[in-house]
Amino acid sequence: MDQRFSVPTPGQNFLIGFEDWLACQRGARTKTAVRFNAEPRYIATYRSLAEYVHRDFSFQPFMHAALIILRMGGERGDDVLSPTNPYRGSSTQFGDITLGNKNLLTLLAQASLLAQKASYYQKWQVHRRARPETVGGRIDVHLSGRKSYDTNPAILHSDAMARTKEMNGSYLLSMAYPEGCPTHPSYPAAHAANAGACATILKAFVNESYKIPQPVEASADGSRLEPRRGDALLLGDEIDKLASNIALARDAAGVHFRSDSISGLTLGEDVAIGLLADYSRTYSERFDGFALTRFDGARVRISGGVAQSW
To answer: Which of 54, 127, 191, 256 is catalytic?
Structure first.
């Protein structure tokens, strides 16, 4: 599974001129496009990662992670499974549609869909928070004296505004995507909710303490993979890292605020725990339930329809 992608060339910032920004708000088709390096690269920068989450579908990175994880394991191939999985260590049986590969992959899709629904309910029915693109536009109009908005003075006089003006020539917040932000509200981020939900499903099915063998990392320019040196990488930590990267990459792209993503992660986590609780009632196997570590470090066990800290 090749992990190299078409990555943008550095220095591309969109919608930082007011005329381009206004045309975008009015629905005009963009006249610009992202420029890419000639050779595919491994993801090594936030700009590259921001482009990845520009193109992916909701649970794609976690489906890929699951397929990679399921090829791991010791001599028996099941060291990577959760210690509570009843098929771990069996020489005569394996999980398939229950507590096996198909169950895991299906639950990733289900959790992603439910998390997206939960995110959209909060976006439309509760918060309706403006996107960074809109907030930047209001600040630019306000500080240029064209119109007055009820904006917190701490924002208007912050160092961030001065730095934005110096860098962009306006107070508009730069976008990594020529078309700007999606047209639905900002909070909580759907990418983050998907990530939180899918990461939780993955952690429920795997051994979080499993040490990833022979880890590699991308070179600084993304042109090659190099052996990673340092402390051992634990599977649970790497799943959390993947969820964080997917969520925060949308911030780096300029289409979300950090709080959109942090709240989206925890919303998705709660949705997935609820889904696992529902499914824990349905298994005929004798097993000790799902056990996983939440993003805040708390441990939770899910069995018989109930999720409890332990």
So the answer is: 191
The torsion angles phi and psi of 10, rounded to 5 degrees, stand at: -65, 160
Six-digit token string for 85: 């999985």
Kindly list the domain boundaries of the chain, sorted by start residue. 1-39+132-180, 40-131+181-309
User: 101, 109, 119, 102: which is closest to 186 by C-alpha?
Assistant: 119
Q: Give the CATH H-level superfamily of domain 40-131+181-309.
A: Vanadium-containing Chloroperoxidase, domain 2 (1.10.606.10)
157 catalytically annotated: no
Task: Express each pLDDT in 182-212 by its tens digit.
Answer: 999 999 999 999 999 999 999 999 999 999 9
3-class DSSP assignment, residue 265? helix
Cβ neighbours for 214, distance < 8 A, ≥ 6 positions apart = 227
Q: Which residue has the tokens 């930082």?
A: 16
Tell me, yes or no, if 184 is annotated catalytic. yes
pLDDT band at 31 (very low <50, low <70, confident <90, very high): confident
Secondary structure class of 116 (helix, strand, coil): helix
Which residue among the candidates 64, 127, 142, 184 is catalytic per the annotation?
A: 184
Structure tokens at 217: 């990392």
Question: Closest by alpha carbon to 115, among 273, 267, 256, 239?
Answer: 267
What are residue 284's phi and psi, to 5 degrees?
-85, -15
